[in-house]
UniProtKB/TrEMBL annotation:
InterPro entries xrefs: AAA+_ATPase, ABC_transporter-like_ATP-bd, ABC_transporter_ATP-binding, P-loop_NTPase
Composition bias, Acidic residues: 280-298
UniProt family annotation: Belongs to the ABC transporter superfamily.
The UniProt record lists the keyword Phosphoprotein: no
Presence of the UniProt keyword Nucleotide-binding in the record: yes
Source organism phylogeny: Bacteria, Bacillati, Actinomycetota, Actinomycetes, Actinopolysporales
Coiled coil feature spans: none
Chief localisation class: membrane
A single cellular component GO annotation: plasma membrane
Compartment list: Cell membrane
Residue span(s) of domain ABC transporter: 8-235
Region (Disordered): 191-298
Protein name: ABC-type cobalamin/Fe3+-siderophores transport system ATPase subunit
Length: 298
């Protein structure tokens, strides 16, 4: 599988919420096919920056271009080009589903086939049991599954949030190696982390901790794998949206839940699918003509 990738440029961008700045005066230059990392402690706006760079969060200052098209005028185009594999909180695999159900759902919503799934699984280096509950998988395996399903449609760009959370050192190395392999296909990868990879990757975007923020050990007493109250309040009130672009996992007619920007009235993008283009997810006991009985892709 291969992709032409997508370039992303940001100059002096700032986002604000009801409690003040989410991030301020951020610059970024990401070329097609690069593995870019957004690095910063919890609460510095890493997730929000991923949303902003992909046309899903409104900024109050600065300039963003995706594939040469300026936002917010071309936010819809940006959302098509930069697909989320994992964004916390909100865009994650359903832990109560089995692996085969997640694969089947992604085949319907992203219009991919078993060959695409098999190739993306091999690329990332993951092969979970089809009947395994997603919630029972090791966190590293679960993250790699999300990346593989995101890559199955060969997007121009892929967003991966909180790469290192809950992972021991060996699993982190495995995940970063997989993300490097993804970028090797030409797909642009933008990943957020508090712990950068040990190899030389692409551009690094560092987000400093606000001066008035306490250390991680005393922040709100929250778990590291969920958003803090501060971060959630910052996202609230950033301005909502009339989302129009479906994303993998939400269904053909579902909104892009991470679109926190209005589409520009004059944006000349292709219209989304109408009601006639929708498909229903088969019941679990139905068989697929291109899959084995145990749910594995052939």
């Amino acid at each position: 599988m291969s992709s032409d990738g997508v370039g992303v440029t940001a100059r002096g961008i700032t986002a604000r919420g009801p409690l003040g700045p989410v991030f301020e005066n951020v610059d970024a230059t990401i070329r097609p096919g690069e593995l870019a990392t957004v690095i910063g402690p919890s609460g510095t706006g890493r997730t929000s920056l991923l949303l902003a760079l992909s046309g899903r969060l409104r900024t109050v200052a600065g300039r963003i271009e995706v594939d040469g098209h300026e936002l917010p005028k071309h936010s819809k185009r940006a959302r098509k080009l930069l697909a989320p594999a994992l964004l916390r909180p909100g865009f994650e695999l359903e832990r109560c589903w089995r692996v085969r159900e997640a694969v089947r759902e992604r085949r319907v919503t992203s219009k991919i086939d078993n060959t695409d799934v098999s190739e993306s699984f091999a690329l990332v280096g993951v092969d979970p049991e089809p009947e395994a509950l997603i919630g029972s998988l090791h966190p590293g395996e679960r993250l790699l599954l999300a990346v593989a399903l995101g890559m199955a449609a060969s997007p121009a760009g892929l967003l991966v949030d909180d790469v290192e959370l809950g992972l021991p050192a060996a699993a982190r190395v495995r995940v970063w190696t997989a993300l490097k392999a993804v970028s090797g296909t030409g797909t642009t990868v933008i990943a957020s982390t508090t712990d950068p990879p040990r190899f030389e990757a692409g551009p690094v975007i560092r987000l400093p901790r606000p001066d008035d923020e306490p250390d991680d050990e005393t922040r709100h007493g929250t778990r590291p794998d969920i958003a803090t109250p501060f971060e959630m309040e910052q996202l609230r009130g950033t301005g909502l949206v009339s989302p129009v672009t479906p994303v993998p996992g939400n269904g053909p007619e579902q909104p892009d839940l991470f679109s926190l920007v209005e589409d520009y009235p004059g944006e000349e993008d292709e219209p989304g699918p109408d009601a006639g283009d929708t498909a229903e997810i088969p019941e679990p006991d139905q068989s697929d003509s291109d899959s084995d009985e145990d749910g594995r892709a052939r």
